[in-house]
From TrEMBL:
Annotated PROSITE patterns: ABC_TRANSPORTER_1, ABC_TRANSPORTER_2
Source superkingdom: Bacteria
Presence of the UniProt keyword rRNA processing in the record: no
Domain ABC transporter: 646-874
SMART domains: AAA (SM00382), PepX_C (SM00939)
Matches recorded under SUPFAM superfamilies: alpha/beta-Hydrolases (SSF53474), Galactose-binding domain-like (SSF49785), P-loop containing nucleoside triphosphate hydrolases (SSF52540)
Protein name per its UniProtKB record: ABC transporter related
Source organism of the structure: Salinispora tropica (strain ATCC BAA-916 / DSM 44818 / JCM 13857 / NBRC 105044 / CNB-440)
Length: 948
């Protein structure tokens, strides 16, 4: 949620009569800042230079290759005023265009930014060697030479540019490997990248090496395909490569240059643009599902592991929790290896990753700020040294204003690693169980879809573990919430008649309703050998589960699942039956002592802070006194309206430019009433509702809720439920979980929510346990009504609750509102559907041009309508005849009939006039509808002064 502007803040806390002076002070100061900004000379656009640069790399350093580059130069960069540089790498399968936005932002911040398309991709030549030290890394070294020769780039010595290296995924590993191979690098920011490429694609979570690992065939196939064909885009290459937004990447497919066949020889369709040794290693692993020593050595050749002790450049490691490709453990290994030599290292985890994109804006902004501070200090030499903090985040819910996801950030002193600063054991139990390994791994459980991003959330509850192929062990409901930060551990026993088994261990969060969530789709594959035939004879095996950041709520249970198959991994082809049991009846959950990172305040510019500092100190004192008096006054109850849910008295809203949106609105809403607020577009309905919800202050008049004068932040607002925007929910959560998340955000006691009563009134039934993504529009609208009804507020304010619903859904919404009001509560509904208001509302308030033109029971407003429906043989001729009669007016057509307002003229005279004109009259019936009364009240010139 954004913090209010200074003027808005003053407006909320000062009474009306004293508001103008304080607001004027703030406006003057803000205007001074704006003027100061406008006095600065306008800067020209960034300069860019695109070129194919030939560099010499390879084992001997003399193999030429063309790299497609673009240099971004800030306007101030000249030979007389050189600037530091950023070398910005893209993700696997991407090109230099993948990081254009980040390059431009770095250049805006005063850096010369060099981007390039790595060899084997896009218009660059060469083959893909997977960040080989002799090829991709040496290419980057030659680019450092090129930067050092640019007069616009500041140097520390001849041939030594002042440079930071930033990249994500493929580009992140390049940053680590380049810093290990070339000491000219001044700082690096590797994001969502690997430590050991062999372990990443052949993980084994019981402690064995990649030779015993379980092949991650889904991700490996996606990577190999993106480099082995001529598709148009990339994998893992867009967002993460830039240092400012760490997000998810791109779609499959790498692109070939137009002259690829000529530049690199004939393309082998089985290898694409991969180097022959890389291709051969992949084909061997993909065929057998196991890695041989040569394949492991090849993958480790392209891994920072084993080279970290050579890195002297201060390192900011950013890793995503939603990442089944390079999980948090990869950043952990990098951090420990670099810090061991005394190099400054900072670690930041965020909620995105290869499977989760950038995460919420609050999270990507946090990472952006960390990146900028890191480079500004270690490359530019500006600002204080970043603190030795470990930061992480988790999804906290959604913003009540824009319905977007919100991530809460946390800070801890020093990096605690995957074991956390403390461990919380949780007892789990269950008998030994037999599980089947399916032949050829089919059917297989689905835990995640590589690179699916938001699609992965759709798997929750739709696909999961296969019956007969997994064992479950569960805990009792947790007595208190646990914030897990790190890698949980569990100990199991396994037996197999073949002596070997491949298993997948998972940790689920199971809510009170039985819905199970696998955090970020993460699993722990293990390959066990030398197993006995009976589980009683098996030795304990400690399994380190993938690191997560998750709050396990009180009342939730933990479920340990041991499965025999997973769609993303290669499993034994031969069928078998294994036995599994718990070796220790506890799961160990790591926790971290931390403090929240404030996110609800706007970062003020230092100049503005300096201008306001002296005033703010005095203003705070004045405001505190005035607010204290204000609250005392507003805590009084008006005796006349103490039992009235809503009383609006002489409401007026006039804007500073003289525009009057509401000039005289006065009405009441009582218990048991459903009151419809009606009016044409621009009549003042929206402004009235905004005032009622405390979103804007009236110019004059008062609003009382149960006798309390309504002001922004008034405690009595908790007795009002509202739906003033379209419903917005998290699609991967059930309806009930969405409601619970909303209620937690209110900070009110759990017992006050009255979930069961609100759900019964809304009529969702068992559908409330389904994922919201499966809801129809009408069900979403009813869920939004249920959300407004949480806590069973005594006053419900709804703006167009039937908007977009079909007739059956409208009828159901009508019943929902009537059920709510019959419980002794009150409802105020703004709607443009007059027929629905007539059938739903007991009372109506008609507003036109900012004023009430009628109010009271619906039947009284309808009254004895002067309108009649006349069916004639010739409607066109009849209209001409009636238009000539004094006082008689023909209203817009009503379903092909003439709607005639006689205005006191006898109906017999109207009929006689038609007959005299030779027009046959088939039927004359009175027309008594709210629509008639509405049109009579607002007339044809119904366009009001307009809402803002």
């Amino acid at each position: 949620m954004r913090s209010p502007s200074p003027a808005a803040w003053v407006r909320r806390v000062l009474p009306t009569r004293r508001r103008a002076l304080a607001a004027a002070v703030v406006v003057v100061l803000l205007a001074a800042g704006v003027v100061a900004g406008t006095l600065r000379p306008s800067e020209p656009d960034l300069r860019t230079e695109a070129a194919l640069v030939t560099v010499r790399s390879g084992p001997t350093g003399d193999e030429p290759v063309e790299l497609d580059t673009t240099l971004y130069l800030p306007p101030a960069a000249t030979a007389d005023a050189p600037v530091p540089a950023v070398l910005l790498g893209h993700g696997f399968g991407g090109t230099k265009e993948s990081v254009r936005a980040d390059a431009e932002e770095f250049a805006d911040r005063g850096y010369a930014v060099l981007t390039w398309t790595a060899r084997g991709f896009g218009r660059s030549g060469g083959q893909i060697h997977l960040d080989h030290p002799d090829y991709e890394v040496r290419d980057a070294q030659r680019l450092l030479d090129w930067l050092a020769a640019r007069p616009e780039v500041v140097t520390d010595a001849a041939g030594d540019p002042r440079v930071g290296v930033v990249g994500g995924s493929y580009g992140g590993a390049l940053a680590l490997l380049l810093a290990a191979q070339d000491q000219r690098v001044d700082a690096i920011v590797p994001m969502i990248t690997w430590n050991d490429l062999a372990r990443s694609f052949l993980p084994e979570n019981s402690g064995e090496g990649p030779e015993q690992g379980v092949f991650k065939k889904g991700w490996a196939g996606l990577f190999f395909g993106s480099g082995g064909n001529a598709g148009p885009a990339s994998v893992g290459g867009s967002g993460p490569a830039g240092g400012l937004a760490p997000g998810g990447g791109s779609v499959p497919g790498g692109s070939l240059p137009e002259n690829a066949a000529t530049a690199a020889g004939a393309i082998d369709p089985s290898c694409g643009r991969f180097a022959a040794d890389v291709c051969a290693a992949y084909l061997r692993i993909a065929t057998t599902g196991r890695a041989d020593p040569d394949a492991v050595a090849l993958l480790r050749r392209s891994s920072p592991a084993g080279k970290l002790d050579r890195i002297e450049a201060p390192t900011l490691l950013v890793q995503g929790a939603a990442d089944t490709l390079f999980p948090l453990s990869e950043a952990d290994a990098n951090a420990r290896g670099i810090a061991a030599t005394g190099t400054p290292v900072q670690v930041a985890w965020f909620t995105g990753g290869h499977d989760g994109g950038d995460g919420p804006k609050t999270d990507s902004d946090r990472v952006r700020n960390l990146t900028v501070r890191w480079l500004d200090h270690y490359v530019k030499g500006e600002g204080a040294a970043p603190a030795d903090d470990f930061t992480f985040s988790r999804i906290a819910g959604f913003d009540a204003l824009d319905r977007g996801l919100v991530a809460s950030g946390f800070r801890a002193t020093g990096y605690p690693g995957l074991t956390g600063t403390d461990q919380r054991p949780v007892s789990v139990s269950g008998p030994a169980q037999s599980i089947a390994n399916p032949p050829a791994g089919n059917p297989a459980a689905i835990s995640s879809v590589p690179f699916a991003g938001d699609l992965s959330s759709l798997l929750d509850g739709v696909a999961g573990d296969i019956p007969g192929q997994h064992a479950r062990f569960e805990s009792a409901p947790l007595p208190a919430a646990v914030d897990v930060v790190g890698a949980p551990t569990v100990s199991i026993r396994a037996a197999s008649p073949t002596g070997t088994a491949v298993l997948f261990v998972k940790l689920y969060d199971v809510d009170a309703g039985g819905s199970a969530t696998l955090p970020n789709g993460l699993v722990a594959p293990i390959r066990l050998e030398g197993l006995p035939a009976a589980v009683e004879d098996a030795e304990p095996v400690t399994v380190t589960l993938p690191a997560i950041v998750r709050r396990i709520e009180a009342g939730h249970r933990l479920r340990v699942v041991v499965a025999t198959s997973d769609q993303a991994y290669a499993t034994p082809v031969e069928p078998a039956v294994y036995s599994v049991a718990l070796a220790s009846e506890a799961v160990t959950l790591p926790t971290v002592a931390s403090e929240p990172i404030p996110t609800d305040a706007v970062v003020w510019r230092w100049v503005l802070v300096g201008l306001l500092a002296a005033i703010v100190v005095g203003l705070v004192v004045v405001v505190a006194v005035l607010r204290h008096r204000h609250r005392r006054r507003e805590s009084r109850v008006h005796p006349t309206y103490a039992g009235v849910p809503l009383a609006v008295r002489d409401l007026r809203k006039e804007y500073a430019d003289g525009f009057v949106a509401v000039s005289n609105v006065d009405f009441e809403v009582h218990h048991g009433q459903v009151v419809g607020l009606l009016g044409p577009n621009g009549a003042g309905k929206t402004t009235t509702l905004r005032v009622l919800m405390g979103l804007t202050q009236p110019t004059a008049g008062e609003v009382y809720v149960f006798g309390h004068r309504l002001v922004p932040g008034a405690p009595v607002l908790s007795r009002i439920g509202a739906l003033v925007e379209g419903p917005g929910f998290l699609p991967h959560l059930s309806g009930l979980d969405n409601l619970k998340a909303y209620w937690r955000a209110t900070g009110r006691p759990w017992a006050d929510a009255h979930f069961d009563e609100a759900l019964e009134i809304a009529g969702l039934g068992t559908s409330v346990h389904r994922k919201v993504r499966t809801y129809s529009h009408g069900m979403r609208q009813r869920l939004a009504i249920a959300q407004a009804m949480l806590g069973l507020p005594e006053l419900l304010v709804l703006d167009e609750p039937t908007d977009g619903l079909d007739p059956p859904q409208i009828a159901e919404m009508r019943r929902v509102l009537l059920r709510y009001a019959t419980g002794g509560r009150a409802v105020l509904v703004s709607s443009h559907l007059l027929a629905e208001v007539e059938q739903t509302c007991t009372h109506a308030v008609v507003v036109n041009k900012g004023q009430i033109v009628a109010s009271g029971p619906v039947e009284e407003i309808v009254g004895e309508s002067p309108s009649v429906l006349i069916e004639v043989t010739d409607p066109v001729a009849a209209r001409e005849v009636l238009d000539r009669l004094t006082g008689v007016s023909v209203l817009p057509d009503g379903d092909g009939q003439l709607v005639v307002d006689t205005n006191g003229t006898a109906r017999s005279e109207v009929v006689a006039e038609l007959v005299r004109a030779g027009i046959g009259v088939d039927r004359v019936v009175p027309r008594r509808r709210l629509e008639d009364a509405f049109l009579a009240l607002v007339g044809d010139n119904s366009r009001g002064s307009g809402d803002r």
